[in-house]
Amino acid sequence: MPQSAFSFQPVSPASIVADMQWSLHPWEEDIPAELEDSFRNSGILTPPCLIPRGGDTFILLTGYKRLRFWMQENPQKSIVCRRFHATPATRQCLAIALDDQRFGNKELSLAEQARFIQLASTVLPEMEKEGLAGLLPLLGLKKNPQLLRNLLALAREPQELLQAAHRGEISLQIYSELRKLKQQDRTALLTLFSRLRLGGGKQRRFLLQLRDCAYTHAQSIADLLQQQDFLNIVEHRNLTISQKIQHLSSLLQAMLQPSLHSEEKSFQEQVRKLELPENYALEHSPSFEKDEITLRITFADFTHCRHYLNNHLA
Q: pTM higher than 0.90, yes or no?
């Protein structure tokens, strides 16, 4: 874009229409403390970008938080903006919004990617909307119709889910599973993921276990998680997060395979009665498929191991 297409000029905030039309994160109303500190300490390094609206007014293309901060700190003063003399083509506006968000090698969050695709689907002419999947490589994503559908669906979700995606608490793969569920079940799972700080792998495991358990017991996931057994674990004040995860996993396993849980409980009781030394451990075969038992002994070093073997195998 030629330099003559825009200029940097002071503009009165009163003449700027900031209606979030072009924002890639319209769910964020507050300025994060870290960003506010940066503005206060270093100033606004990248001026907001404006396109003409008519008369002496402008539409804010980028810089929503920058403008809001300026209006908080300097409500009566003009702010220096990158002001376009004519409205750029729609695709150019999208590119500007995207480049501004990625300034300083910043990666877009999952929610921002979804919002970008939604924005493109809204502002592009009807004849160009069939090529939306072609925009995915701009986001570092593969050109995939299913991926496009998932992003568009995510963009329409309630704010709590979008904010979770924006914070990196769920991946697109997990969302593709979540969107198959009812809204109340999605909300219940998101709350659980957040409270237990579950990563992607554990999220998927818990999601599948809870889904299967809810189906087996003819309940919703939301109702299942409100059962007292679950609440006793999740809300326990003395358990660490890792302990809660372990207890929840055991509870779900017991609900899904009660006979296996009973065998495990019986096995652990027998091991406890043996009163083995701390460095001894007994292990059964996976899912008790075989009768064999493995004795595992941990030694402090090779010398202790060799001494033990000389005494017991001589």
A: no
Q: How far apart are CA 196 and CA 84, in angstroms?
A: 47
pLDDT at 278 over 80: yes
Give yes or no for a contact between 154 and 175, defined as CB atoms under 8 angstroms apart: yes
pLDDT digit string (tens) for 157-187? 888 889 889 988 888 889 989 989 998 999 8
The answer to whether 87 and 106 are in contact (CB under 8 A) is: no
Check: CB of residue 296 under 8 Å from CB of residue 281. yes
Residue 208 located in a structural domain: yes
| Inside any domain, residue 224 | yes
Residues 188 and 230 both lie in one domain: yes
* One-letter amino acid of 128: E
220 lies in the same domain as 247? yes
Query: Of 234, 256, 278, at which residue does a domain stop?
Result: 256
Helix (H), strand (E), coil (C) string for 137-200: HHHCCCCCHHHHHHHHHHHCCCHHHHHHHHCCCCCHHHHHHHCCCCHHHHHHHHHHHHHHCCCH
Q: Whole domain around residue 290: which residue ranges?
A: 259-314
CA distance 162 to 83: 31
Given a cut of 80, whether residue 40 has pLDDT beyond it is yes
Sign of CA dihedral 217, 220, 221, 224: negative
CA–CA separation, 61 and 214 (whole Å): 46
The total of structural domains in the chain comes to 2
Contacts of 201 (CB under 8 A, 6+ apart): none
DSSP bridge pairs for 60: 50
Q: Are 107 and 74 in contact (CB under 8 A)?
A: no
Range scoring the smallest mean pLDDT among 19-23, 26-30, 142-146: 26-30
| Whole-number pLDDT of residue 289 | 67
